[in-house]
Write a structure and sequence with these properties.
Radius of gyration: 16 Å
Number of helices: 4
Number of strands: 8
Order of helices and strands: HHEEEEEHHEEE
Distance between the termini: 23 Å
Largest sheet: 8 strands, antiparallel
Structural class: alpha+beta
Shape: globular
C-alpha cells in the first residue's frame, strides 16, 4: 500500500500473477473481441473537444460488452487504454478517455491486492462477476475506482489511474474547482473526484450505467508503455501499469523502470 497521501496516486486494490511470472512477457495479440470492436474505431489519439461541444459520436459511446472483462487482467488492462469512462449524472454527462490503468491479481497471488487474503465485506465485489466497479476509500478522504475482470470468483481488477477529459469539461471542473484541465483526472483519486464517483458506485455494472466504460478510441501497441505499479509497498516492481506513451494526462507517479510490454503470465 502507498505511504504518501498524494491525491493523484493511491494504493492499488487489484490482483496480479505470481512473483515468479513477473519477468515474463504476456501475449500481446489482440483477442477476437477487441479485434471486432477496434475495427470500427480509429486508433489515433483523439484531441480534446472544443468548448461547447456536448456530445461524442455514437460509436465511441457504445458500452463495452461483459465479454470484454472476461479475460486475464493484463489483457483487460492494456485494452482499457483509450476507452471512455462515462458518468451520466442528473446534472449532466461527463467522460474521460483512459490513458493509464494498473493490473492486480487475485487471492494469494498479489500482495498489493486488496483480494490477497481472500474475500471480506470490503472486497466482496472483487470476487463477484466481471464488468462491475470496485470503489474503495483511502487516506480517509479519496475514492479510487477499479473494474473487476476475469471469471466470477477470480478477484482480478484494474485500477483506473488517469484520463483525458473529453466530455463535460465544465462539469468536471465544477467538481474539482482548483484543477487545470490537464490535471482534472490525472491520478486515480482525481479521476473519481472529477467524475463524481464515490461509494455509491461500488458494485455497479459498467455495461448499463449510470457509469459506463465505452468503446472510445483504442490505442495501438506502439503507443503503449508498461511500468512498475505506483503507490504500493509490495510487488511494486511488477510491470503491470499500462499507459499511453508521452500522454500529458498520465499521473505523476514514480514507478519502476518503463518497458515496452508488460511482465506477467
Amino acid at each position: 500500500m502507498s505511504t504518501a497521501p498524494d491525491p493523484g496516486v493511491s494504493p492499488a486494490p487489484g490482483p496480479g500473477p505470481p512473483p515468479e511470472a513477473a519477468d515474463r512477457l504476456p501475449p500481446q495479440a489482440a483477442s477476437p473481441l477487441s479485434d471486432a470492436v477496434d475495427r470500427l474505431l480509429p486508433e489515433a489519439p483523439v484531441p480534446p473537444l472544443p468548448e461547447g461541444v456536448d456530445r461524442l459520436p455514437p460509436e465511441v459511446m457504445e458500452p463495452l460488452p461483459v465479454a470484454f472483462y472476461q479475460r486475464p487482467v493484463l489483457e483487460v488492462t492494456r485494452d482499457l487504454l483509450g476507452r471512455l469512462l462515462v458518468h451520466r449524472a442528473p446534472e449532466g454527462t461527463s467522460a474521460v478517455r483512459l490513458v493509464e490503468a494498473e493490473a492486480y491479481d487475485g487471492a494469494g497471488l498479489d500482495p498489493a491486492s486488496h483480494a490477497y487474503r481472500g474475500p471480506t465485506a470490503r472486497t466482496a465485489v472483487m470476487f463477484g462477476p466481471p464488468g462491475h466497479l470496485y470503489l474503495y476509500f483511502t487516506y480517509g478522504m479519496h475514492w479510487c475506482a477499479n473494474v473487476v475482470c476475469a471469471p466470477d470468483g477470480v478477484a482480478q481488477a484494474v485500477l483506473l489511474r488517469a484520463g483525458e477529459p473529453v466530455l463535460g469539461t465544465e462539469l468536471l471542473r465544477a467538481r474539482r474547482p482548483a484543477g487545470r484541465i490537464r490535471d482534472l483526472a490525472r491520478g486515480p483519486a482525481r479521476l473519481c473526484q472529477a467524475l463524481g464517483l464515490s461509494g455509491w458506485a461500488n458494485g455497479l455494472p459498467v455495461t448499463t450505467g449510470p457509469v459506463l466504460l465505452t468503446a472510445g478510441w483504442p490505442v495501438p501497441d506502439d503507443q503503449v508503455t508498461w511500468t512498475g505499479r505506483v503507490g504500493v509497498s509490495a510487488a511494486a516492481d511488477r510491470h503491470w501499469r499500462a499507459l499511453v506513451t508521452g500522454d500529458p494526462h498520465v499521473s505523476p507517479g514514480r514507478p519502476g523502470p518503463a518497458r515496452g510490454r508488460a511482465a506477467g503470465t
